[in-house]
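Title: Comparing notes on inverse folding

I've been comparing how different people in this forum approach sequence design from structure. To keep things fair, I'm posting one structure and asking everyone to reply with a full sequence. Here's the target:
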């Protein structure tokens, strides 16, 4: 028993015993959605409440629009100047489609190797109903979502693959390879902050750790 239609629909997406036979069709563009809630969310995109000023693509909320704009702006830069540098890692691209695929590795780090879809969050990845069945590599069982597969893995014992940094464990090696370690991310962020907080001498280019050190350097080395 489920307390609401939403809860039932969420369950049906991950239940390995359920085959989705009913789809909800958008009356405007004909797209098929797996649930009434997804159709309702999709229909909102046709209302054009939020629209990109660069490409006129509509979005149902300001958050999705804000996530789209940097990609749109940088993709158009390829067309106008012939190249673009990724704002996240500085890697340069001369092909817009290749850049867009790369951009998603930053914004959608969770990648399903079976259906090739990407997701912003781990939860989104784990609960998605994959176009390709998810097989258990220890027995012949097959499931329709990573979440259902992970629940099944418990029957085979504790997860054997563990991240050496955050100690989070996984049943599949590819899940460990794919996971974004929060511990390592914090270290990288701290390094970025230290780099951005350094002070550069405008005369000789020397890099100092504090503003006081920079002032001392300017007086002693350049007489300022």
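Reply #1:
Here's my take.
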């Amino acid at each position: 028993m489920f307390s609401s239609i939403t809860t039932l629909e969420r369950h049906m997406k991950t239940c390995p015993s359920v085959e989705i036979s009913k789809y909800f069709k958008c009356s405007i563009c004909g797209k098929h959605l797996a649930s009434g809630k997804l159709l309702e969310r999709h229909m909102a995109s046709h209302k054009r409440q939020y629209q990109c000023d660069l490409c006129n693509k509509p979005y149902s909320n300001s958050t999705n629009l804000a996530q789209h704009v940097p990609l749109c702006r940088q993709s158009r830069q390829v067309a106008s100047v012939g190249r673009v540098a990724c704002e996240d890692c500085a890697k340069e691209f001369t092909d817009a489609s290749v850049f867009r695929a790369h951009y998603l590795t930053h914004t959608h780090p969770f990648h399903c190797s079976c259906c090739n879809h990407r997701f912003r969050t781990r939860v989104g990845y784990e609960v998605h109903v994959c176009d390709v069945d998810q097989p258990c590599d220890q027995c012949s069982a097959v499931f329709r979502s990573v979440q259902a597969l992970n629940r099944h893995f418990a029957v085979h014992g504790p997860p054997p693959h563990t991240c050496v940094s955050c100690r989070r464990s996984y049943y599949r090696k590819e899940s460990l390879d794919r996971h974004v370690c929060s511990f390592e991310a914090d270290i990288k962020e701290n390094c970025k902050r230290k780099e951005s907080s350094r002070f550069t001498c405008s005369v000789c280019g020397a890099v100092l750790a504090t503003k006081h050190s920079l002032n001392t350097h300017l007086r002693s080395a350049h007489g300022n």
